Amino acid sequence: MKPKIYGLLTLLLVLMTQFSIGQEKSISGMVNDQDGLPLPGVNVLVKGTTNGTQTDFDGNYIIEASEGQTLVFSYLGQRTVERTIGSTNTINVEMVEDASQLEEVIVVGYGTQSKRTLTDNIAKLTSDDISEVPNPNLQNALVAKAAGVQVTQTNGKVEGGINIRVRGAASISGGTQPLYVLDGIPLIDPVGGNEDVGNGAQTNPLLTLSANEIESIDILKDASSAAIYGARGANGVVLITTKRGKQGKASFSLNLSQGFSEPTNKREWLNSAEYVELFTEAAINSFGEADGRAEAEATFDFLAGDTDWRTGEVDTNWSDLAFQNGYQTDADFSMSGADAKTSYFFSGAYNNTTGIIRSNELERATARSNVSHKFNDKFTAGMNLGLSRTEIDRIANDNAFATPLQAIAQSPLSPAFLPDGSPNPDTLYGNFLLDDENAFFKTIVRRITGKVYGEYQFIPSLKFNSDFSYDYFSQTEDNYRGQNALFQSTNGQAFASDLGSESYVYSNYLTFDKLFAERHNINVILGTEYTQNNRRITSVTSQQFPGDDLPTVSGGAEVSSGTGIEQKNAFLSYFARATYSLDNKYLIKASIRRDGSSRFGENQRFGTFPAISAGWIMSEENFLKDSSTLSFLKLRASYGELGNAEIGNFASRFLFTAVSYNQRPGLAPFQPGNPDLTWEKSRQSDFGAEFGFLDNRITGELDYYIKDTDGLLFAVPLVPSSGSDIINRNIGKLRGKGVEIVLNTRNMETDDFSWTTNFNLGQNVNEILSLPNANADIVNGQNINRVGNSVAAFYLREYAGVNPENGDALYYINSDNGDGTLNRNTTTDPNEAQRIVAGNPFPEWIGGLTNSMTYKGLDFSFTFQGEWGASIYNGGGVYQSVNGDFYDNQDRNQLRRWQQPGDITDIPQARLFGGNGTANSTRFLDKADFIRLRNLTLGYSLPSSVVDKMGFSRLRLYFTGLNLLTFTDYAFEDPEARSDVNGSNSPGETFYSAPPAKTYTIGLNINF
Amino acid sequence: MKSYQVSFLALCSIIFMGCENRLEINPTDNLPGELAITSEANISAILIGTYDEMGQAETYGGELPLMTDLLGTTDQVAWGGTFSEPRQAYTKNLLVDNFFVETIWQNSYESINQANLVIDNIDIVTSSDEEKDRIEGEAKFLRALAYFDLVRNYGAPYIAGQPNTQPGVPLRLSGILDYSVPLDVARSTVDDVYAQIIADAQSAYDLLPSVNSFYADKYAAQALLARTYLQQGNYAAARDAANDVLANSGHVLTTTFDGAFNNDTDSSEDIFTFQVTSQTGINQLVNFYASQENGGRGGDVRIQEAYYNLFDDPLNDERANFFYISPDNDQVLSSKYTNQFANVTIFRIAEMHLIRLECNFREGTAVGLDPLTEINALRARSNAAPLAGPLTLDLIFNERQLELAFEGFLIHDIKRFENNVGSLPFDDDSLVFPIPQAETDTNPSIVQNPGYGG
Fold it and tell me: What rounded mean pLDDT belongs to chain A?
C-alpha cells in the first residue's frame, strides 16, 4: 500500500507546484571549486522559497525556477554565491573557499567544533598550506603560518630535530616539544633523549609522515583548548588529521616535483694568502720576528704537505667541500572517494632528498589507507593505517671532527685530497673526508601507525566512540668506520643498534550533542584513555676487522660493547568537556582532565587539569546585526591549567647504574632522587577578539595571554663537590605574556583576479618570577635563570673591545660596586670580569606575512617570516674568531685586527697562543633578528578546455622556492641554525651548525 | 547489536581503564638507590664502581696528568691540539670556566662520594673480617688518592716546615644520598686535607692485604704515603715508606725501560694501575699523546728540544730515544703512550727508587741503598751511563724528569724544589688551578684562589 500512497502524494505535489508558479523553467549547470574540480553536494536554493536541490557527484544540478529569481549556492567552507536567473538556462558556478574561515571546522581533540563558536585559540593549517613547502620535514610547513608558534629545524641536516615553541618557552629541562596527536593518537618521540642509539643529535619524530597524507594541522595554543590533553599539553598540542574520502566522484591526484637545494648562507674564511699573512703576524707578535716567523712557517710547511704554500698553489675552500648540491624528488598520489556508506582514501608518497651537507641523504616511502563504513544508521567503524620506511644516511653531530661543517676552519693551505685522490690525513685537525669516504651511518626507521575505531549512535544526540591505536616504531642503525676512517685505530669498528618502540592508546568516550528549544546547544564529552609505551633497545659494537669488505658486526673479531635496555611508561586519563551555547551567540565551555603517570612518584602520580572559556558573538546582537561595516565580532576569554610530564621515565627516582671495571661488575650512583618531583604546571589566561569587517573582507584575531609556569622542571646543577652534578627539580615560576595579532584580508576579488593577505604577529616576553633558595641564581654553563630575567638567559663576560694603545682585548669588570651599580672599568684579565645577563635565546616577536594571488589560471603566493629578540652564542667562536690565536682558519672579519697604536677596531691584536680575547664572552654572541622570504610559489593551471581533452580535471605546473632570501645582520651560519648536541638546558648555541637549505622546486599536479 | 549491549560494552571499556596499578612501573635498567645500600654484594660493587669512576678520562684516565704536565712546562713539550682548555694550562692562563679544570674537580668528588658510601656502610659487610678490611682499605686508599691530587692542584703549594693554613679543598667524609639538603661546604686548610690523606692511607695500609689482584693492596697505600710525605718535605717518612714498598711489595723494575709502559696487564713494576681493556676503562693519555694509528688524535702533545736537552747521555739512554715521529703531523711524540687499551699506571716502582734515593740524600742516610748506587741502578735499566757523583739535588730533580716525564709529576716536583716554570716562581698564583666556576656558582661557602678574580 505504502508506495502507492507516496506516489500519489508526489504527483499531487508536482501538480500543485505546476499550478502555483507559472513561468518556471529548468535551470541546469555545474558547480566547481576554485581548482576547477566538480563539487558534489552543493545546496542550490531558489532564494526566498523552500525550493532547493543538491549537486550530484559530478557537480551538476537541475532546478526549476523562473526568470528574475535568485539562485543561492552554498557549501560548507565555500563562500555562498548568488546568481540572478536571466534568459539563459545554464548557470555554471565556481565556488571560492571562504577566506574568512569563520565557518571552518576545527579539530579540538575528541571532536570538532566550528571556528565561529570556538572559545579557544587554535590555529589551523590546511593541506594547501602544507603542500606549499616541499621539505621532508612536515613541520617546516608551519613556519610563519600561526601567530605565536615558532618552528625551527635545529639545523640544515635533512633529518634534524624540530623545535616548536607555542607562545615561547614554557619548560626548559622538561620536554620542549609540543604533543603531536595524529588522528587521535598521541605520538611520542621514541628516540629522543636516548644516548644509547643515534649519534648524539636529535632527529625529527615526524620524519616518517608525508605531507600528502595530511588534511589539516590544528595547533591548540591556549590552555583552554589544550587542557583536554592535560599533563601533556603544556607545550601546546599539534593535532594532525589525515585525509579521508569526500562524498562525490572518486578522485585521483598525482604530484611530481623535483627540487634543487643549496645552503642559505656560507661564511667567509681567510684564503691562503690572508691565512699566511694573519698567522705570520700573529706568531711574530707572540714570539718576535725570527722565532715567530720560524714557528709560523714550520706550521705552514706541515699544513701544506708536499705543496708550496709560498706560491699559493693550494687554496682549499673547505666550506665548499662541506656542502654539496642538494636534490629533492617527490612523487605522490592519492585516491579517494565516498558514497553514503563508505569512505576511502589511499595514498602513497616517495621522497628522495640529498641534503646540502656532504653525504647526508634521506629516502622515504609512505603509504596510507583510511577507510570507514557506516554499517547502519547507528554504527560506523573504520580504520586508518599508515606505513612508512625512511632511510637516512647520517653524518656526525655538530661536535665531532667527522661532521662536514667542522672542516670550515681547516687551513686553506692544506690540500683536501692527496694526489692519489684519497683524503689528506695530515690536516690541522681530523679531516672529515676520511670519514666521508671510509665510514657510514645508516639509519632505517619503519613505522606503522594504525587506529581502528567504532562509533555507535545510541540516539541522535548521544554517541559512543571507542578508538584503539597502535604506533610501532622500529629503528635500526648500522655504523661502520673503516680502517682508514678518521681516528680509526682498531682495524675498523662496527656498531649496530635496534630500537623498537610500541605505543598503544585506548580511548573511549561518550558524546552528547543536542539543541534544545532551538536556542540551547549543549555538547558534552566524557571519556577515559590509557596509553602505554614500551621501548626496547639493543646494540652491539665490534672491532678488529679483516678488511673493510665485511662491514657488519659479525665481521669484527672482538665484540667490545653491547647494551640492552627496556623502558616503559603509562598514562591513565579521565576527561570531560562541556560546551554550551545560547542562541549561537553566548558560548561557554569547561573541561577537566585527570592524568596519572608512571613517571611520577606515588604521592604525585595524579594531576588534575581544568579549563574554562567563554565567548560572546557580539555581531549577533541586534545593535550590531545590521552594521554594514562590522560583519563579525566575537569576544572570548579562557583560563586553563596544563602539565608537562616530559622528564624521562624515572626522573624522580634515586638510582644506581651498573658499571664495569676490568670486566668486573660494579655499581655507581646514576641520579639523585627527588620524591617531591611533580608535574610542571602551566596556567594560562587568554583574552581574545575575532572580527570581520566589510562582509568579512577583513577578518582577524587579537589575543593577549598570560602563561604562568609553576614548578618549572629543571635539571638543577648541584654543587660539584657534592659528588653529583644535577638533580631534577621543580624550580619556581615563570611568566610569559604577549599579544598575538592575526589579520586576513581579501584585497581584490574579481572573476579573474583575487588577492588575499594573511598577516600574523606573536609576542612572548618571559620573566622568571621566583626561584628556590631565596631566589638564588641557577647558572648552567653560559645560561642563567635569574629572577626578573628571561628564562635560560645568556650569562657571559662582557666584551669591551680593544685597547687602541696596545691591541689588548678588554672586558668590563662589572663587579658590584656595593651600591647596585656595576664597575664599568675594563680589564684584560677574563677571570676578573664578572658575567652579566647578556641576552635571550628565544625571540620576543615572531611573525609571518602571506600574500596569495590568482589570475585566471595563474596562482602566486609568497610568505615572509620574521623573528626578533633572540641572540645566538657561537660556541665555535673561540676557535674561528679569535684573531689568530690558534691555526684554525679564521672568519674573514678577523682581518680587521688591531695592528698599530691608534687603530680603532673590535678585533684585538693577533697573538698566536696569546689568549687575546679568547675567553667566552659577548664577543661571540650575536643578535639573531631576521626576515626571510620563506616560500614563494608560482603555479599555472591549464584551462579546463585543454585539460578535459587530456582526460584530466586539472593540470597544474608550479615553481616553489624555499628560503630564497634572508635579511639579517647575524654574523654566523644562519639565524635559524643551532647546535644539535646541546642539552635543552643551554639553548641558543651554534657550533659549526649547518644553515637550512634554500630550495628551488618545480612540479606538476594532476587530478582526474 | 542492541543499544543496551553497546551500553554494556561501553561501560566495561570505561571501567577497564580504571586499573590504576598499571601505573606502577619500576625501572629495569637502573637500581633504585634504596636497594643499592643493602647488601654486601652491592657494597663491594660500589667499590668497584669507584675504581671505574676514578679511571675515567676526566682524571686518572688522562686529563689530570695532562693538565698538570702542561702547567709544569713552557718548553719541554708544546701543546698543538685544538682543545683550548689544555692550551690555557700550557700558557698559564687558566680561566675559571676551563672545562677540564671543572671535570677533574667534578669527577674527583664523584669518586670521593662513592668511596664515602662504601666506608659509611662498611658494617653491612659481614662475610669475613678480611673481606670487610679489604673493602674498607681500598675505599680509603682511593679517597686518599683523590684528595691528594685535589689538594696539590687546587690549593696553594704545601710549604715544608711551617703551618699550611692556606685553603685546600672541601673535605667531604661521608657519602651523600639525599641531595635535598644544603650541600655547600667551605675549604679545609691544606694541613687538614693532608692529615686526612695520611690518616686514610695509613688505615688502608693496615687494612689491606699485601697482594690483592689488580686492586689496591697494602703497598699501593704505602706508595701513596711515600709520595704524600715527599710532597710535604717529610723526607724520613717518605724514605721509609718507599723502602717498605721496595723491600716488601715484590714489585721490581722491568728489565727494559719500554717494558714499563703500554701494558695490557700490570708489569712487575706496576704498584697500582687503573685497568683498561678494549671494553672498559679508558686511556685518555693515548688520546692526547699518540698518533692516530696508535689510537690518538695525531699527537697533541709534542716533545720539544728542551726536554731532549735534559739528557746527559742521549746516545745511550733509552729514555732519550723513547719517541717516534707522528705520521699525522710530523711531530715528535712520546712512546710512553702508544697502546690505547693499556692500563694507566699510577704508581710504579721507579718512582719509589727515586723517592728513596732523594730522601736518603736529603737526610744523609742510606736506608735500603746508597743514593748514588740507587740512581745509577735506575739509569742502568735504560742503558744510561752511571753518574760519577757527587749527587746533587739538581741531578736528582733532573733524573726524575728523565724517568717520570709526561706522567704528571713535573709541576709538583717544581713546587717541592721551589724551582721556576719559565719565568714564573713555583708559588705563582697561575700555577694553581682555579676553583671551577661551577663550584663557586653553587657553593656560597667556597673561596676562589688568589689571582682568579673575585
Answer: 88
CATH class of this structure's domain B40-178+187-429:
mainly alpha
Closest alpha carbon to A885 in B98, B78, B88: B88
A821 touches chain B (CB under 8 A): no
Task: Specify whether A189 is located in the same domain as A83.
Answer: no
Quote the domain boundaries for residue A236: 105-242
Judgement on whether residues A341 and A222 belong to the same structural domain of the protein: no
Q: Residue A898 domain-assigned?
A: no
Cell numbers of A336, please?
Answer: 579517494
**Count of structural domains, chain A:** 3
Q: pLDDT tens-digit profile of A840-852? A: 999 999 999 999 9
Please give the distance of CA A465 from its chain centroid, rounded to a whole number.
Answer: 30
Co-location of A111 and A89 in the same domain: no
Residue A853 shares a structural domain with residue A760: yes
Cell of B118: 662504601
Q: What is the mean pLDDT of residues B214-229?
A: 98
- Burial status of residue A781 (CB atoms within 10 A of its CB: 0-12, 13-18, 19 or more): buried
Cβ of B388 under 8 Å from any chain A Cβ? no
**CA–CA separation, A671 and A655 (whole Å):** 5
List helix spans (H) across A609-696.
622-625
How far is the C-alpha of A187 from the C-alpha of A206, rounded, in Å? 9
Query: Quick check: A468 contacting B, CB < 8 Å?
Result: no
> In chain B, what residues touch A561 (CB-CB under 8 Å)?
279
At A231 the pLDDT is 83
- pLDDT on residue A983: 60
**Residues A736 and A757 placed together within one structural domain of the fold:** yes
- Contact of A829 with chain B, judged by CB distance below 8 Å, is answered with yes
Q: Which of B275, B248, B246 is nearest to B348 (CA)?
A: B246
Residues A89 and A140 in one domain: no
Assigned domain for A281 exists? no
Interface of B with A in 394-423 (CB under 8 A): none
Residue A801 pLDDT greater than 90, yes or no:
yes
| Judgement on whether residues A219 and A80 belong to the same structural domain of the protein | no
pLDDT (tens digit, 9 = 90+) per residue, A317-331? Answer: 999 999 999 999 999
Which of residues A242, A275, A306 is at a domain's end?
A: A242
* A858 occurs within a structural domain: yes
- Give tens-digit pLDDT for A733-755: 999 999 999 999 999 888 889 99
What is the Cα–Cα distance from A966 to A931, expressed in whole angstroms? 6
A556 and A694 fall within a common domain: yes
Residues of chain A numbered 703-762 and touching chain B (CB < 8 Å): 717-725, 727
Query: A-contacting residues of B 188-217, CB under 8 Å?
Result: 214
The pLDDT of residue A11 is above 70: no
Please calculate the CA angle B259-B264-B266 and round it to the nearest 5 degrees: 65
Record the cell numbers describing residue A63, joined without a space: 532546478
Residue A21 has a pLDDT of 43
Is residue A248 situated within a structural domain?
no
DSSP A509-533: EEEEEEEETTTEEEEEEEEEEEEEE
Q: In the predicted model, what is the mean pLDDT of residues B428-432?
A: 96
A968-1000: b (≥16 Cβ within 10 Å) or e: bebbbbbbbbbbbbbebbbbbbbbbbbbbbbbb
CATH of the domain at A86: 2.60.40.10
* Euclidean distance between CA atoms A990 and A880, whole angstroms: 12
What's the average model confidence in pLDDT over A636-665?
A: 88
Distance of CA A410 to the CA centre of its chain: 33
Q: Do B439 and A719 touch (CB under 8 A)?
A: yes
Give the one of A464, A659, A724 whose C-beta lies nearest to B179's C-beta: A724
Which is it for the CA torsion A882, A888, A890, A894, positive or negative?
positive
| φ/ψ (deg, to 5) at B280 | -135, 160
Give me B410's grid cell. 713535573
Residue at grid coordinates 587554535 = A122
Q: What is the CATH number of the domain that holds A214?
A: 2.170.130.10
